[in-house]
Design a protein that fits this description.
By secondary structure, the chain is α+β, with helices and mostly antiparallel strands. It has 13 helices and ten strands. Helices cover 44% and strands 14% of the residues.
Length: 375
């Protein structure tokens, strides 16, 4: 067994683990926190726990972060029990320390937390079957529905203005003005594309400010790999990675799922002829999401579902373009034009969504009619 990158004896001192420690392995899917599975033998039975080192460079207020996570997971646990579900599989559960705290600080000043480990389940990195996308939509829709009555205003904003598209546009214009990396002359068409769509950045922000869209508990990272799927049924059973849970609009979560999952091409595809919105995948996700969350959403939320796909794609493209102008200081890159290629992909998807917008609205309307949801 390789030597752990943590002091297992110190970890065990702080948590009431069941059984005899037998080893660990790392999970490398995440980009922010270091994650390990601790394995134990409990009376001859396998027992495991998820151990994470919180990245305090990204999340500078671990107290507020964990207050959000504990509040949401304990609420979900209660609702799942009331509905006759299995709270050990259908939600993450924070395992408190022996002192009742949601994390502890080790002697080397690292922040550690522990969750239940969900067995007989897997995560997906790519959509190989439309049913997988549908099942992820059901899971994220259930997450939204179960938290519909949670007081979103009680959550801390752990990353300010994360999906404030007006703020994101202003950040891009600041990058254009400063031209830190001296790349502006090569991206004037991309900047023009963004400027022509400035009005789009105000739509959801203004609807929230006017009280026409409700503030919800939002996940803010609704990628496919943040859903656990059951080994036997392939159904999405649990939404994971709750570090970016914050108050926001349900449209942010829906739109980002479509941006990530219904794009026919990779996020950094250089051949833009391969980039387009797959309407079949869009329909699969809409159906799963509306089946599970539809009756907890307002008419305005449902009306703007297609637009949210365009908005979140546009936001992501602006962020890639801004980072390219700033000298690639935020996103990791594999080559000098990586962020520019990513921007091109997102903007190409925005253009394709605009072409298919009426079809997208018709899909949402038809699904709502079939499900008996007012629109």
């Amino acid at each position: 067994m390789t030597k752990p990158v943590f002091d297992i004896e110190e970890i065990k001192e702080h948590f009431n683990f069941e059984g005899e420690y037998t080893g660990y392995y790392s999970i490398h899917n995440g980009h922010i926190n270091n994650t390990y599975v601790l394995e134990f033998n409990h009376n001859g039975n396998y027992r495991a726990y998820l151990l994470q080192q919180i990245n305090t460079y990204v999340f500078t207020s671990p107290d507020k972060l964990m207050e959000n996570v504990v509040g949401v997971t304990e609420y979900l646990h209660k609702i799942i029990v009331e509905n006759g579900g299995d709270p050990e599989r259908e939600t993450l559960n924070v395992i408190k320390t022996k002192d009742g705290a949601p994390y502890f600080v080790s002697k080397d000043n690292r922040y550690w937390r522990c969750y239940n480990f969900i067995t007989d389940a897997y995560t997906c990195q790519a959509i190989e079957n439309p049913v997988v996308f549908y099942n992820s939509a059901v899971a994220f829709g259930n997450f939204q529905r179960l938290l519909a009555d949670y007081p979103a205003d009680s959550l801390h904003e752990t990353i300010p203005n994360f999906h404030n598209t007006v703020s994101r546009y202003n950040d891009l214009m600041e990058a254009v003005k400063n031209n830190i990396a001296g790349r502006l002359d090569s991206v004037k068409e991309e900047v023009k594309f963004a400027q022509e769509r400035e009005a789009d950045t105000h739509v959801v922000v203004d609807l929230i400010a006017e009280g026409k869209l409700p503030m919800r508990v939002t996940h803010n990272d609704t990628k496919l790999n943040n859903v656990m799927f059951d080994n036997n049924t392939d159904k999405g059973i649990c939404v994971i990675d709750l570090d970016t849970v914050m108050p926001g609009s349900s449209l942010y979560d829906f739109g980002d799922s479509i941006r990530f999952g219904a794009n026919h091409a990779a996020e950094d595809e250089k051949d833009l002829s391969l980039v387009y919105l797959d309407l079949n995948l869009f329909e699969q996700y809409c159906r799963g999401y509306l089946e599970s969350a539809g009756k907890s959403l307002t008419k305005t939320e449902i009306e703007y579902l297609p637009f949210s796909a365009k908005l979140m794609t546009f936001e992501c493209g602006m962020r890639f373009l801004g980072d390219y102008l700033n000298g690639d200081t935020y996103f990791k890159i594999g080559y000098p034009e990586h962020n520019l290629d990513r921007c091109h992909t997102q903007f190409a998807l925005v253009a394709d969504i605009e072409k298919k917008f009426d079809e997208m609205k018709a899909i949402v309307s038809r699904i709502c009619s079939e499900l008996g949801i007012e629109k």
